Write a sequence for this structure.
């Protein structure tokens, strides 16, 4: 949990957002559905490097939706790591920003799945909790079936996607990180 | 010609639930089928694994409830290995359990269910001053009720709607004649919806404190992993515990002064819904919140029992180990059992898929064949409803004065009798009433923990049976809890220190179950039959009843993709 003492407002204590890490890295996905869990494998890979906890917070969001709303507010950058199915070849590494994410939002019914990241983002927007910048890095899945472990096509691209994620964080936070992945 | 309404998906949340409703000439539902359209079989993953790790996998089953599956899992392993956790472990588990229940119920009401009753678009027409007057009358103890506040809420909403991205508000039937609230009540509900959303982000930090992290808190077979002491830096110390107390006080304020008043106010506009959606009339609760160990259900805050045919003068006992009581049938499910068996107790349970349905995408399913990925769990052959209404009725029928008090108070304010509980609105009201009980129990449990710590007991785990060399070569057990959506149980068989079989019967499998071999409907199906539809093309009535159960099919898939999904299509056959 982020530091920051609670301020009681109308009988309810609220966290002080000033003390939050400016960068949130949110891994999403289901580890029990093979490639669906790739976002969490990416989270592992990226968070294993040395980061300043006051600058970057890593959260394993699983398949939760609204339950993650509490992590959203007060960020300069939120980087979502997830399986991204856009119909490309399995293993394709995607990086989505601004207009591309808006297009996804517009085309998809966000009410069908609470666990859907898009609903989380829509609700954050309603509350004014959106980050200044939102980036999604992910890999096109091959197998989304009951089972543990990634397909070969997705596994082969883990390092590339993790390096891309590190670059996104570094370019935003101007943090000193080791140069190699 | 008979009309068939297909609603797929029904849930605003995780999972794949499809409902097909058959209408008669007067647009009344005369038959209904509820289908889980996605294969789960998560249990298969657990076979052969270390039973002490099972909870961490189970926590990943569901896109909404993480902690209840972890709790049921550690309890089933402890039951199997004969481990009794120390009192503080039960208390911390109770605090986490009650926190999740209250948070989940408040979210369900405002975020997932209110849109079935509240017309968000109509809220834009409200007069802020009149809304303030209404709010002061409805929720007098909630301070935010000025014309300026509601005017700000209206402009937030307007901006959001005008951005062209209704997002969370799309897929509802705005302007449908079934919406009865005046614009001011709609605006008040929207404002309180925003307050509830902000609050729920905070209260769940109780899980982060006791579970180390969230949304996947840590559990351990034998107790809780949290090191706790009044003094100290890297432990749960008094500063953290004070924060828990403040969060609990805030939760009491939200439930008593916001949720309950809103619930009763909205309910008063929909009296006809105390006559609709009753369904089975069979209610089951496993019970939870132990006061003297999980082995003594007579001391649970949520009592255990079964009520059949709405008969509140008799509460029947439930036994998880009696293999003739809980069984899963597959007559209308896409599974196969060995040796031609048609029903199995979960200890002997088998999860072998056999899909015989039409090739997707299909127009309709055949109610005379297998039509669901859900099995049909039955208690002594009876279909059962589980969830808040079952828990409240079992508590009420068990003669518990705390349950009677909150139930009679609400019935009195709505000027209806106890029979009103057997309905869609009764289900929705029961969720609020149990939140009221739960939020005060939460403070009791907290105080109990502080007392124990002050008396020098800071033990949270018993690890004497942690080492597998202490285990019997073969054992079996069960672990139950009351998830927000209803009774949940995990059954395990351990052989040679590994999981030999693991079966989970989730609450939505009880409620969303298909028919069984005798043709008995599941709870959703039964609740829909008899419902009059004002406009079959916009089936808000179906959503009201199904959402009153807080549906959640436990398979959480999560891929971001560009495709849209239709909410309802009409098939005439």
């Amino acid at each position: 949990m982020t530091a920051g003492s609670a301020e009681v407002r109308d009988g309810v204590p609220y966290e002080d957002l000033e003390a939050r890490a400016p960068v949130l890295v949110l891994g999403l996905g289901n580890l029990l559905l093979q490639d669906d869990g790739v976002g969490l494998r990416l989270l592992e890979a990226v968070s294993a490097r040395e980061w300043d906890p006051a600058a970057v917070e890593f959260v394993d969001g699983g398949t939760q939706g609204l339950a993650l709303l509490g992590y959203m507010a007060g960020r300069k950058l939120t980087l979502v790591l997830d399986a991204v199915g856009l119909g490309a070849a399995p293993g394709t590494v995607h990086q989505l920003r601004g207009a591309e994410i808006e297009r996804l939002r517009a085309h998809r019914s966000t009410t069908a799945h609470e666990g859907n990241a898009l609903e989380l983002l829509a609700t954050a927007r309603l509350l004014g909790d959106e980050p200044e910048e939102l980036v999604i890095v992910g890999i096109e899945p091959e197998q989304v079936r009951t089972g543990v472990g990634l397909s070969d096509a997705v596994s082969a691209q883990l390092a590339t996607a993790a390096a891309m994620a590190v670059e996104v964080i570094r370019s935003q936070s101007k943090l000193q990180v080791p140069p190699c992945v | 010609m008979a009309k068939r309404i297909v609603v797929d998906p029904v849930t605003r949340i995780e999972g794949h639930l499809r409902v097909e409703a058959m209408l008669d000439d007067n647009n009344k539902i005369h038959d209904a089928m509820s289908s889980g359209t996605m294969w789960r079989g998560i249990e298969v993953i657990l076979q052969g694994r270390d039973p002490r790790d099972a909870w961490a996998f189970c926590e990943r089953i569901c896109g909404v409830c993480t902690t209840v599956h972890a709790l049921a899992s550690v309890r089933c392993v402890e039951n199997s290995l004969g481990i009794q956790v120390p009192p503080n472990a039960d208390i911390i588990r109770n605090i986490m359990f009650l926190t999740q229940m209250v948070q989940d119920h408040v979210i369900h009401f405002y975020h997932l269910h209110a849109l079935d009753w509240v017309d968000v678009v109509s809220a834009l027409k409200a007069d802020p001053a009149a809304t303030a007057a209404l709010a002061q009358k409805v929720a007098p103890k909630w301070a935010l009720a000025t014309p300026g506040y509601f005017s700000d809420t209206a402009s937030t909403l307007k901006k959001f709607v005008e951005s062209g991205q209704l997002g969370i508000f799309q897929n509802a039937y705005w302007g449908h004649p079934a919406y009865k609230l005046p614009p001011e009540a709609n605006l008040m509900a929207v404002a309180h919806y925003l307050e509830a959303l902000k609050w729920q982000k905070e209260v769940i930090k109780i899980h982060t404190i006791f579970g180390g992290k969230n949304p996947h808190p840590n559990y351990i077979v034998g107790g809780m992993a949290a090191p706790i002491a009044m003094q100290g830096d890297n432990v749960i110390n008094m500063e953290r515990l004070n924060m828990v107390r403040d969060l609990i006080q805030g939760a009491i304020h939200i439930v008593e002064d916001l949720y309950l008043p809103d619930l009763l106010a909205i309910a008063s506009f929909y009296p006809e819904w105390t006559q609709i959606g009753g369904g089975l009339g069979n209610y089951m609760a496993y019970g939870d919140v132990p006061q003297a160990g999980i082995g003594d259900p007579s001391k649970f805050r949520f009592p255990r029992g079964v009520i059949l045919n709405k008969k509140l003068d008799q509460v029947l006992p439930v036994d998880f180990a009696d293999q003739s009581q809980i069984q899963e049938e597959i007559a209308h499910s896409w599974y196969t059992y060995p040796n031609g068996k048609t029903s199995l107790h979960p200890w002997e349970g088998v999860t072998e898929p056999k899909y015989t349905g039409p090739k997707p995408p299909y127009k309709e399913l055949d109610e005379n064949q297998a039509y669901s990925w859900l099995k049909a769990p039955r208690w002594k052959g009876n279909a059962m409803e589980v969830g808040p209404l079952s828990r409240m009725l079992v508590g009420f029928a068990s003669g518990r004065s705390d349950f009677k008090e909150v139930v009679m108070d609400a019935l009195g304010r709505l000027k209806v009798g106890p029979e009103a509980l057997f309905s869609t609105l009764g289900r929705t009201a029961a969720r609020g009433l149990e939140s009221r009980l739960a939020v005060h129990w939460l403070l009791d449990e907290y105080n109990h923990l502080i007392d124990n710590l002050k008396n020098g007991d800071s033990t949270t785990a018993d690890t004497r049976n942690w080492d597998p060399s202490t285990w019997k070569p073969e054992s079996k057990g069960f672990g139950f809890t009351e998830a927000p959506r209803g009774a949940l149980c995990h059954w395990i068989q351990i052989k040679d220190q590994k999981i030999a079989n693991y079966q989970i019967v989730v609450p939505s499998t009880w409620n969303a179950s298909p028919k069984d071999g005798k043709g008995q409907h599941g709870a959703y199906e039964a609740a829909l039959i008899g419902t009059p539809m004002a406009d079959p093309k916009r089936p808000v009535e179906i959503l009201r009843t199904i959402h009153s159960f807080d549906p959640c099919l436990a398979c959480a898939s999560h891929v971001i993709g560009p495709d849209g999904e239709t909410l309802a299509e009409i098939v005439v056959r």
